[in-house]
Amino acid sequence: MTETDVEKLKLMVVDDEPDNLELLYRTFRRDFQVYKANHAMKALEILDKEGEMAVIISDQRMPEMNGTEFLSLTVERFPDTIRILLTGFTDVEDLVDAINSGQVFKYITKPWKPDRLKEIVEQAADAYQLVKKRTQELRRALRRESLFNAVTTAIRESLDYSSMLEKIVATIGQSFKTSYCLLRPVESNCLTADEFSYLDPQITYSCEFFDASFLIEQVLETQHYQHSLYNKNDNPCYQLAVPLIYQQHLLAVLALYETGRDQPWQDEDIQLITGVAEQAALALSQAKLYQRLQEKQQQIRAELEIARQIQNNLLRQSLPDIKGVKVQACCYPAREVGGDFFEVFVHPKGDLWLAVGDVSGKGVPAALFMASAISVLRRELSQETPAMPNMVIQNLNKALGDDLISSNCFITLILARYTPSTRELVYANAGHIYPLLWSRETDIDNPQYLKIRSIPLGILPKWQADFGQLFLAPKDILLFTSDGITEAMVTKKTCVPENSVNGFKSNHRSMLHLDGLWQLLQQETQPLSLNHLLARIQADNNIQEDDQTILSLEVF
């Protein structure tokens, strides 16, 4: 035991026999702060005044209130106190009652042996100190967990980086009951202009009353917590500044103030605050990264929107009005930009050139090849006498083939030349979906597929293939489409045999394919509207997986 009274544990002895009371006092007065009481009521008065005792030694047989009853009254108020019962008899029922109701640590029969009593009291003191230590550790752990949960909840409820900082400073300020709490973000070891603060509503001072600029500068230099105690306007003010560091990067400085406090925060409080600061630093780092990602995504979306407008402007914004024919075209990328394209070009000599192409993949890479393909195609078609469609495609492959092969991309393309004066159609197909041709004049079950086709561009260094040739008649309709149309997932009805229950039809999801597209075309009203056709397909196709392009040529 320590020699100073201040550090000695408190011990109370209660006995109605003066000799026993004095003996107990002299036995323990060197090692404990000993309090004497000659009856239970006097002992309760001492407890009211002096508070918790480490050990209480009480006689069982006392007037007015026995030892068991007295000890039981101390259990709820002082649960950590160690209780020892002195008894001059060995009544089993009294002992059991004392142990159960009074939570007695040991019982000792009279007369006792001084050495044995000292040994038991030392054990009791050790048990008390261990209980207090464990209780204090548990209290700290619960406080830490409660504070961490409060900070975590505040962080999760934050909508953005700024609101997170506001919630962190408010939660810490309220949890530690500070007068004022300030959080200053740091960028590249320099304070930013932003400030986030919490002020106790009961404080009459303004925020300007609290100034921790000196401590914050010290934290910036040392990256270690700083604290100080000073008087301002005769008011003691204690301030603490803590760095928020994650992976050796200083993210912010947290400053806490408390007025009217004449002693610094304890080491336990500082450790708890620094622990919360570490947790907050991790959350801030993640929030800052998320904010930067959001800003980057917003920038990318803005750039993609510009790219979408540019790509859309590459396509024909208006289609030519040519006597005897009607041309329609639609193109909808699956993302902001895509690899599908169409071209409608009227040559000065009167020929009408039609094309639908599809670059493999989606997004920006496909869009760049799409722009290159349109540029080269228009250059070829702008010649005084353009080559045959198959030779134009061959020239396209020569111009773009190396880049396509090195990028592991390819382009499918259908290109046709229509001469209005003769109604001749010449076409070449580089791996694209078969064009559909049908007539409003004749009632047919299936359309004609133009099946002359070769490999896509970008597969081989040299592309070559034959061209197809035919003559169209009035009321003929020619349709070009990309695989985003034929591979769209739609709901199809399957007929159930007549002998099945109730004869219901079952629905299932599958690709549209050319056959399904033809069925939809047969259901379309006159005149044909590609926008209406696409709207029907997209209405049944909740997610557009691929770019969708369709072009039609109607002959009158």
Automatic annotation (TrEMBL):
Molecular-function GO terms, alphabetical: kinase activity; phosphatase activity
Keyword Phosphoprotein: yes
Domain Response regulatory as annotated: residue spans: 10-125
Gene3D superfamilies, alphabetized: 3.30.450.40, 3.40.50.2300, 6.10.140.590, PPM-type phosphatase domain
Membrane spanning residue stretches: none
Top-level lineage group: Bacteria
PROSITE patterns: RESPONSE_REGULATORY (PS50110)
Protein keywords: Hydrolase, Kinase, Phosphoprotein, Transferase
Keyword DNA-binding found: no
InterPro entries per UniProt: Bact_Sigma-Reg (IPR052016), CheY-like_superfamily (IPR011006), GAF (IPR003018), GAF-like_dom_sf (IPR029016), PPM-type-like_dom_sf (IPR036457), PPM-type_phosphatase-like_dom (IPR001932), Sig_transdc_resp-reg_receiver (IPR001789)
One of the Pfam families matching this protein, by short name: Response_reg
Any single GO BP term: phosphorelay signal transduction system
Residue(s) carrying 4-aspartylphosphate: 59
SUPFAM superfamilies recorded: CheY-like, GAF domain-like, PP2C-like
PANTHER family hit by this protein: STAGE II SPORULATION PROTEIN E (PTHR43156:SF2), STAGE II SPORULATION PROTEIN E-RELATED (PTHR43156)
Protein name (record): Protein serine/threonine phosphatase with GAF(S) sensor(S)
Source organism per UniProt: Fischerella thermalis JSC-11
Lineage, uppermost ranks: Bacteria, Bacillati, Cyanobacteriota, Cyanophyceae, Nostocales
